[in-house]
């Protein structure tokens, strides 16, 4: 639309005339305190003007009792209060009005008795906004009538220099002002008045019309966008400025470099920084601070230090914020020496480190193991009047505890509690672990009770301390700690009770072990076959009668079905009610081999050791026979037709190996004599350890087996002739020769098997022959 400038000026003249009349003749009504904005409907035929509250939800009408009276100098002014009524006629507020002054005479309005300045930029921006919104006609005049200020010709002249179309703008410039200067001036006014949409719309219009925008206008728009929290629009404006080849001034650099740096566009910010210096502009302190901070946080420490040194070269005194930023950046990158140098430089400059900086420098040095420096800083922090945080205490305490320094750790703990701070769970855990490693049971008990008083659950922590004693083999301390736990109402779990029981068994503390086992059983924990077998292994190695009684009592306390089997195995058939072979088969049928195959192998090895030592060879042969039938040792016996027969006993205990050799040779004899099958050779694979034991046993009956490195071997024919001897028949059918008790006792000492250390909660690996008895 092309505006008629004569009509616009005529409307402006009428508008100014109306407000002049109002200002000379009347005093305006002031809005109530709760009203957001009060405008006036002015008309030549009606005085005084009617105030209206511009609010979306309601209207406030006024009732004026007396409008005005004549003064002594002939002037007219309001003398009575104004009553503000709601739509129902109720009184909302009473008060005096705003008295306007004559346009062009003063640049302020009176609010009560106080003069308030009226900013020209706001007036111009408001008039431009109305003209651009309502274009022309009665609506425009109505909206101009509603303005809450009295515009003068300066306001009108400046406002009419910018409208939607540039052609229309040209028709408004009757004062000879250039289009370029006027457009830029108006945009700057709008930007200064924070009219974001209008100013940017005007900017786009004059850009589309090919009008050049100057640097100052760009700076005003950039500042406006930044103040409105729209940095990306500010960057777009800067890019538009570059495309237009508009030369940057010092203000542009001061605006763009810090904001580019804060937004992470460090390369662009640094490029502008270099350009600024190249053009002879002196960077401000804000530029240096923002560049150093942003580059430090981005890990560009060399660039940050370079900018910092340049700042010093310009003679700028670094503010404390730049020291804080640099120290934090170097600490987080692990360059503590440089951080300390900057720390000292900051102190020499007269700046006092803040609480956060003390905390950062202390914790970083503590975590890096530089405890002396950390403690020195910690003492300085306390002298400076700062109370360290629980995290600072915890960091120092935990690092001292981890390094085994008990005295500093306890001093820190006492200082922390005396300061009224509550140590964290990790702090208590680390400190108690240290005390446990130092075997300070009484101190650890005191700290644990304090931890409990703080409201923490201490069961797990106390159990961890107990495990420390168990793993270190300090069984006496472990038992002492367990008694303390019981007296303090602190419980532990069955796993730790079992671990302590096994430690007591290993140390020979059988009297202390039995109550632990009873506690374990009474807490509904299940004694498995491995645990029972480990106790039986102790009985096999036992050399003292009093210990044997304790061990038998412990075996009975397990209440495991294997103990009933052991007792039944040593009774006669009249008590068992069935032959021994059937009794053994019945027990092994009750084993779940999918879950307990390893445990069953372990039990067979230890049980055969025990039976051999007790001279129960026939019972032992029954156990081996049933174990082989249940495929516990499926690869022990190999029949390779007429070529070779072999027995592999490398994974058996000494007792199991002896019984396996006797039983298997008996099977070989039956096959050879009854069926007439004679292999070329027979091998007994013993391994290096069991080779001597097996060879000594067979040599007592003049066997033809030759001893090699890990195997006893003989030809099938020689073994056939050997089987025909009466002594061999007696040996294979009955029992080991009479000196077996002495022999087995020596073997138990030379080749310990089923030792207590061969125990685990998981199924054991096959036992090697050298650890078989």
Automatic annotation (TrEMBL):
Domain (Smr) ranges: 647-723
Repeat (PPR) residue spans along the chain: 214-248, 249-283, 284-318, 319-353, 354-388, 389-423
PROSITE patterns named among the record's database cross-references: PPR (PS51375), SMR (PS50828)
Keyword Repeat: yes
Protein keywords: Repeat
Any single Pfam family the record assigns to this protein: PPR_2
SMART domains (UniProt xref): SMR (SM00463)
Tree of life domain: Eukaryota
Protein's UniProt keywords contain Transport: no
PANTHER family hit by this protein: OS03G0856100 PROTEIN, OS12G0638900 PROTEIN
Family assignment from sequence similarity: Belongs to the PPR family. P subfamily.
Name of the protein: Smr domain-containing protein
